[in-house]
Design a protein that fits this description.
- The complex is a heterodimer of chains A (369) and B (280).
- With 369 residues, chain A is an alpha+beta fold.
- Chain A is 23% helix and 34% strand.
- The radius of gyration of chain A is 25 Å and the shape is elongated.
- With 280 residues, chain B is mainly α.
- Helices cover 74% and strands 0% of the residues of chain B.
- Chain B starts with 7 loop residues before the first helix and ends in a 5-residue tail after the last helix.
- Classes of the chains: A alpha+beta (369), B mainly alpha (280).
- Chains A and B meet through β6 and α2 of A and α8 and α9 of B.
């Protein structure tokens, strides 16, 4: 049970021009499941390794329960970590792997046995305690790695992309298993991944990073619904949010936006200043007409269908604006009758429009509820 | 009759390889067999018929060589020098290799270069300076002196082999052990060494064979008869005026036997360490 705080954490690798991690500040509450999400090379693993004590800190602080641990060696931080490669000791049996950390901490033998057995039971590993890692399947190895963290009963769990070596089916079941375990054990957890689905489904909160900086922190649906900039907008969601160049004009107390050859009257609450902007709309907020009942005002955009991608439950339409200048994706029902080459009109849910500053790419706040 | 077993044609196609292997075995194994046969025959018998089979083996020649001509002393000197050297080389070499493979520290490249440059220096080049240094430190004509020279001389190749192997051990294992609470030395002892066993076998066997047969340093750095190692002992049978071929062969067999045994036990592990090396 612990609160993990990081304050202006910076990491500069030798020979690197830019810092890998730049003034990252974040507080992870007691028992919280925090996901660090970002593309590869965004510094999320460096942050994790600095919290673990595996990587020296260039500047800033890491604290656990208010105590700065910058100078505490990894072995004394009482943190357990699950690695992407699992890092099971190949020369030890599953039992020895699980007990290795406890033996070093001088836990009495009987207690070690009790804890290892209970963790093995919890993870369904009891039958494999005598096996060496090379005789286990990928999923079993993953569970041993998790078990090794659990038996330690640490203050904090760290996960470094633990599911990326599993195949798709196993990943889903292991993901659910991890969520269940974390809920039951309730230990503060920091989880690094580049997979937005993992982030959305597992995290109590997610922290999105790019180029060594924190871009946005918040609950998954909050971040999904209100991305702080175009990077977050495109990183979360599959297919990503459509971004289109737009021109803004404020006339007679109305905010008019020209995009894809269409003029749309926006809610006046957008605090847009200049005339250039980026309009963002998620694929699921585009509709075939007539739009379903109960939606607010709809803007109609003339489009040409470029491709139709039926996914089974739904169908993705790749569309081009009538003038051909913009391309975007709409997520529509599977019953769509559109074919590539067709010209049609698509509806855009005005209430769901996001606006971003063309220069800074930051979201333009929308004052309306 | 039709068979599914390898046909004549298969054997025919493989025959060049087979021929090569037979030739190679004869060339490398023949002399050994010849010495083995001679070791059981007396010198007059050998002069009578050099290649004859020992129909009446003289096993007592081994006892004679061991007792009468100081062979026991040579043997134990060799055991002491070689075993001590190999143990020291292995422990020190593994520690150096671990450090070079695991830690990035200031000057690590220079240290690596300095150690590995020892690989290219021919031993003849160092013999004079070593002689002088050992004399200065009172280690000339002592087994300790020879051990020091052997250890120094064989660290380079040992570090070279072990570092290549250790560097392949995934860094995550070391990080995991650190998170599990182990110190740097404990990680070396409990992770690197056990995982590196195949590579360690390779260096132990290699060093043992080379040092067991080492002649140049031994002949220069040891003078007393009761300090000589086996290779020097063999030279003893070769007087300037006469050559006791029979006893020489017996002495050679005593010298070779431990190596053959060692190789027999460890060859498989050694080859595994030289070829595979991957830890998964």
């Amino acid at each position: 049970m612990a609160v993990v705080g990081i304050e202006k954490l910076t990491k500069r690798y030798e020979g690197g021009h830019e810092p890998a991690v730049r003034e990252v500040s974040l507080t992870v509450a007691d028992g919280e499941f925090m996901v660090l999400l970002g593309p590869s090379g965004c510094g999320k693993s460096s942050v994790l390794r600095m919290i673990a004590g595996l990587e020296p800190i260039t500047s800033g602080t890491v604290s656990i329960d208010g105590q700065v641990v910058n100078n505490v060696p990894a072995r004394d931080r009482d943190i357990a970590m699950v690695f992407q490669s699992y890092a099971l000791y190949p020369h030890m049996t599953v039992y020895q792997n699980l007990a290795f950390g406890l033996r070093r901490r001088r836990v009495p033998a009987a207690e070690i046995e009790r804890r290892v057995k209970s963790a093995a039971e919890r993870l369904g590993l009891s039958a494999f305690l005598g096996r060496k890692p090379h005789a286990l399947s990928g999923g079993q190895r993953q569970r041993v790695a998790l078990g090794r963290a659990i038996v330690r009963d640490p203050k904090v769990f760290l996960f470094d992309e633990p599911l990326s070596n599993l195949d798709a089916a196993l990943r889903v079941s292991t993901r659910n298993e991890l969520i269940k375990q974390q809920n039951e054990i309730g230990i503060t957890t920091i989880y690094v991944t580049h997979d937005q689905v993992e982030a959305m489904t597992m995290g109590h909160r997610i922290c999105i990073m790019d180029k060594g900086e924190v871009i946005q922190v918040g609950r998954p649906l909050e971040v999904y619904g209100n991305p702080a900039n175009t990077f977050v907008a495109r990183f979360l969601g599959n297919p990503p949010m459509n971004l289109m160049k737009a021109e803004l004009a404020r006339t007679d107390g109305a905010l008019r936006c020209r995009v894809a050859g269409t003029a749309i009257d926006l809610p006046i609450a957008f605090a847009a200043a200049g005339t250039g902007a980026i309009l963002g709309i998620r694929p699921e907020d585009l509709y075939e007409l007539p739009a379903p009942a109960g939606l607010g005002p709809i803007a109609e955009i003339a489009v040409r269908v470029i491709a139709v991608e039926p996914l089974g439950a739904e169908t993705l339409l790749v569309l081009a604006s009538a003038d051909g200048a913009q391309e975007f994706i709409a997520r529509v029902g599977r019953q769509t009758k559109l074919n590539p080459g067709d010209r049609s009109v698509i509806g855009l849910d005005i209430a769901r429009i996001h606006l971003f500053d063309a220069e800074t790419t930051k979201a333009i706040p929308n004052g309306s509820p | 009759m039709e068979t599914t077993a390898p046909s004549f044609l298969t054997y025919f196609r493989r025959s060049p390889l087979l021929l090569f292997l037979v030739l190679y075995t004869v060339i490398s194994g023949g002399p050994f067999l010849w010495v083995a046969m001679m070791s059981l025959r007396t010198t007059p018998e050998i002069f009578d018929a050099p290649y004859a089979f020992p129909l009446h083996p003289h096993w007592e020649k081994f006892v004679e060589a061991w007792t009468k001509s100081n062979y026991g002393t040579y043997f134990w000197n060799s055991v002491i020098v070689v075993v001590t050297s190999v143990v020291l080389i292995t422990v020190l070499g593994a520690m150096v290799a671990h450090a070079l493979a695991r830690y990035r520290f200031r000057g690590s490249r220079i240290v690596r270069f300095a150690i590995l440059s020892g690989l290219i220096l021919p031993p003849q080049l160092m013999i004079l300076s070593l002689f002088q240094i050992l004399l200065d430190y009172g280690l000339y004509n002592t087994l300790t002196g020879l051990i020091v020279v052997y250890v120094a001389g064989h660290l380079a190749i040992t570090v070279y082999i072990l570092e290549g192997f250790f560097a392949q051990i995934p860094q995550d294992l070391f990080d995991a052990a650190r998170m599990d609470g182990y110190s740097d030395f404990e990680i070396f002892w409990r992770i690197t060494l056990p995982i590196g066993v195949p590579a360690l076998f390779t260096t132990v066997t290699l060093n043992f064979i080379i040092l067991w047969n080492e002649f140049l340093y031994a002949v220069v750095l040891l003078t007393d008869d009761d300090k000589r190692t086996l290779p020097l002992g063999i030279m003893h049978f070769m007087g300037s005026h006469q050559l006791d071929v029979g006893m020489l062969a017996t002495g050679l067999m005593i010298t070779i036997a431990p190596i053959i045994l060692l190789y027999g036990f460890f060859s498989e592990t050694m080859i595994k360490g030289m070829t595979a090396g991957a830890v998964r």
